[in-house]
């Protein structure tokens, strides 16, 4: 058990499995008290596991797409933990889409499903939690994807560390995948919320960053593969969660408005701020 985050109060959505579960455990291992939600009641087993680590942990079954669920979860978390300092808006879903072939009904259904959980869920979580963060400052982390910048230009750091980078030494615009129009739109929307919130909440000492990862061995990714072998260099949820803790540990003077990106095949470490974080810092310095 570490003590880096002792006394901090964290909330994680989608914590019943995969990355959310790993974030919750890593935050608890660093000493934080944690509140968890998930649409699946597997979150109760995660709660019991975390209580075994000796921190305060509370969990609620809640759907982040539903405003009443989110408000009850966030208010309940603040009540049970005595406030909030760290919010990880992680819950997300993916479906593969094909704009050339999908019929209109599937297209609309996919849009509503992914936008509701991914974008609306992050919005509701953030807006319900911000009034608590405003009290003492803290961290708001919105989970995106590596499709925001796919291992290439315009990131501000090199890819010399990459075991696997198709775009190493190639200038390439930020792109997503061909089967991910709605998924990527939802995640790019989260980037928009992150940038605006970073600027508006900086005076309240709230850091807001987006946190996007490439292939990570979770039920989502393994389900997507459907038995195919994972990408070489696939990341572990625990490795990615360690980077999340490092981002929070930067403290009040750390980056804000950044788009932290981790790629399979690269070392799973906190990268230096990318262009978004650098520009946000410059804006705040001018203000
Ligand atoms: N695993 C990857 O390779 C990868 C890559 C890029 C981004 N991500 C993002 O990371 C986040 C977590 O992904 P994961 O791989 O752990 O997924 P996962 O499917 O393995 O786990 C997601 C958890 O969120 C829960 N959840 C789903 N919908 C919910 C809702 N409406 N309300 C509350 N909880 C809900 C699920 O029940 C599940 O427990 C997602 O936002 C995903 O888009 C994952």
Helix content: 40-55%
Q: Main sheet?
A: 7 strands, parallel
Beta-strand share of residues: 5-15%
Low-confidence stretches: none
Question: Separation of termini?
Answer: 40 Å
Q: Averaging pLDDT over every residue, what do you get?
A: 93
Estimate the global geometry from the Cα principal axes: globular
CATH superfamily descriptor: NAD(P)-binding Rossmann-like Domain
- What is the CA-based Rg, rounded? 18 Å
Instruction: Work out the number of β strands.
Output: 7
Order of the strands making up the biggest sheet: 3-2-1-4-5-6-7
According to CATH, what is the topology? Rossmann fold
Give the SSE string. EHEHEHEHEHEHHEH
Which structural category do the helix and sheet elements fall into? Answer: alpha/beta
**Any idea how many domains?**
1
Query: What would CATH call the class?
Result: Alpha Beta
